Amino acid sequence: MVTHVPSEAHGDERGALLNFIEAQRGALRRSVTGLTEEQAASRPSASALSLSGLLKHAAETELSWLRMAQQRPNERMNTENAYADSFRLKEGETVPAVLDFWDGVAKQTEEYVRGVPSLDDTFPLPEAPWYPKDARVSVRWLCMHLVEEIARHAGHADIIRESLDGKNAFELLAMAHG
């Protein structure tokens, strides 16, 4: 899991963007290191957020943005309750399964970003009250938004994890690297 993206590691703009996305994924993924399913699902504050819910939400949100860019329907967001359900594991879902799912989404994201002719290529945003009418964004914007989205939730995860057992990001990084 990438934690620091050195300037020489990415090679080009696409590589840099993908490495920064992966660094934020790693920060969020590390938040569940050494926890049980119950601990990962717990909500140690007034917030409704849990670590396992944040993992699932980040993975499903990345898939949603990828499907928008590909102009394909999102198979995971097919019910009225899908957004709310993205913040919690449902019956039969586990942290390892969510992490595996996210690995697959990450691979698809990388293939898409590496495969588009230009980071300036644009795609339309769906009609929604929170998007301007006929809004379009570029693949570069998509990558920057994924960094922003995942980093926001990695910060939430830091606070939740410290509330659970006092472990901070540096301790989790040490645990992850043995």
Automatic annotation (TrEMBL):
Xref: Pfam families: MST
Entry protein name: DinB family protein
